[in-house]
Design goal:
Layout: H1 2-20, H2 23-33, H3 39-78
Length: 79
């Protein structure tokens, strides 16, 4: 029973990932933009992009709810 919940959560997360980020589109864009780079420069750019994206994701995971609560409070106080 618990495995079904995990599978459902994983499927939902995966489909959301593909719908929101579009990794296939991003990979094509990265290939086009890094066409003139050496293999080492391409790898460095890819690692840097992953680290920056992971940092942003982690930051929003940690403080996102707090920011949304503040926005909601500001929005509802104007009404």
């Amino acid at each position: 029973m618990a495995l079904t919940g995990v599978l459902e959560s994983f499927t939902l997360s995966l489909t959301t990932f593909f719908a929101m980020i579009g990794p296939i589109d991003v990979a094509a864009m990265f290939a086009a933009l890094s066409a003139g780079l050496t293999e080492r420069e391409r790898r460095r750019a890819a690692v840097r992009g992953v680290l920056i994206a992971s940092g942003i994701l982690l930051a929003f995971a940690l403080v996102g709810e707090w920011v949304l609560n503040i926005i909601c409070l500001l929005y509802t106080s104007d009404a």
